[in-house]
Amino acid sequence: MAPYFETIKISFADVDTDPGVNTLQFLDACDDLVRLFDILGPAFSMVQSDLNGNITKVRAVAKECGTLQGLVEKKQEEKTAAEKTATEGLMWLFRALSFTCEALQIVQKEKEKTDKDRKELSAAFTESYKLKLKPFHNFVVQGFFSAAMIACPSRGPFYAQLAVADPATWKDVTAGQLETLNVELDKWLEALASIIGRMKAVYGEDPKNKKKPLIY
To answer: What does residue 209 show for φ and ψ, rounded to 5 degrees?
Structure first.
């Protein structure tokens, strides 16, 4: 085993984005992101399932659509049934990615603070959920997410398990390992946020409600 960022197939920072976001590279990076929820715990199983399901929908048309922008921008009447399914799946995938990215960036902004002053994962994910996903969910799903936020692990063990080779030894994590993790995590999140920003612009506003974007 190895620290998390030594095990990923491809970082979001290494995904080609010119002339558009490379579909296959992006999906491989998403596969690795899903593994983060193994550490966050079983309360996030529904999130994992949704992520995996939407990744599968997009992967089904990846060879035909080399870039994410190409998939979305293809005229609706020219899309196959699989491409239409993938376009909606990609939208929901980006909503979940935006939620995850925002939550971890909230935590990362406080990494220089003392342990007692840092915002915990539960608070960060709750704040991010209200901004990024809650507007798209009904009351039943909102209730599930409220329960999941409460079940978030503490920040310390979560970061330590990402930083060490064996999660079972997280209590032995060193300051150097955490510093390396923070550098890699900041780079990874910055690249993911950039990709999310690109796709927000592509999806644009909800045609049924021009004041509401399709992805927050």
So the answer is: -150, 95
What pLDDT digit, counting tens, does each position of 70-86 carry? Answer: 999 887 778 889 888 99
Residue 12 is assigned to a structural domain of this protein? no
Q: What share of the chain is helix, strand, coil (3-state, %, to 5)?
A: 70, 5, 25
* CATH number for 26: 1.10.3520.10
Is there a domain that residue 206 lies in?
A: yes
3-state secondary structure of 75: coil
How many distinct structural domains can be found in the chain?
1
Domain around 196: 18-213
In a domain, 10, yes or no: no
pLDDT in tens, 163-185: 987 777 778 889 899 999 999 99
Question: N- to C-terminal Cα distance for the chain?
Answer: 36
Judge whether 9 lies within some domain: no
Picking from 185, 211, 214, 187, the residue whose alpha carbon sits closest to that of residue 199 is 214
Q: Are 122 and 150 in contact (CB under 8 A)?
A: yes
Which tens digits make up the pLDDT trace of 14-70?
Answer: 999 999 999 999 999 999 999 998 888 888 888 899 999 999 999 999 988 899 999
Over the range 94-103, which residues count as b (16 or more CB within 10 Å of their CB) and which as e?
bbbbbbbbbb
Q: What is d(CA 79, CA 90) in angstroms, rounded to the nearest whole number?
A: 14
